[in-house]
Design the sequence.
């Protein structure tokens, strides 16, 4: 049971890092403020680094990675493009990413509760990902 919970938790975190990178990539060319761009480049890098760590751990456990849910990814793309077509501003990007971060943190804590038998290392990875999301959310407040 513990190995299954560990794999499931890591797969959800893996999908989360991929979703975050895709979301940042989706809006990066629409940002005008250079400080905000730098912030998002750094956050993207943190997500990618953690995603690589998760991928390596999944391989060690004999498991494959997990892509984000196609429906969730499609809905995110649609929401981004609709909101940006109505108001293409850094504030809109900050609003969209803040919503995404909040949804990510909520999901990660749900998975921590759902997969309680996961090993401590994997739980720590999940908490680190939640921390990255929470920090990005805080850093984006000044752009709202």
Sequence:
């Amino acid at each position: 049971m513990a190995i299954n919970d560990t794999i499931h938790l890591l797969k959800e975190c893996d999908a989360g890092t991929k979703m975050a990178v895709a979301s940042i990539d989706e809006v990066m060319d629409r940002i005008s403020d250079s400080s905000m761009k730098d912030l998002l480049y750094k956050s993207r890098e943190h997500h990618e680094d953690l995603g690589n760590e998760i991928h390596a751990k999944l391989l060690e456990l004999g498991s494959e990675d997990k892509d984000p849910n196609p429906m969730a990814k499609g809905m995110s793309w649609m929401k981004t493009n609709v909101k940006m077509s109505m108001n293409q501003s850094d504030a809109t990007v900050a609003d969209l990413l803040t919503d995404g971060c909040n949804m990510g943190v909520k999901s990660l804590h749900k998975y921590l509760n759902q997969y309680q038998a996961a090993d401590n290392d994997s739980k720590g990875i999940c908490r680190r990902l939640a921390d990255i999301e929470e920090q990005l959310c805080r850093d984006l407040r000044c752009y709202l």
The two ends are 43 Å apart (CA to CA). Residues 2-143 form a domain with the Ferritin fold (CATH 1.20.1260.10). The mean pLDDT is 94.
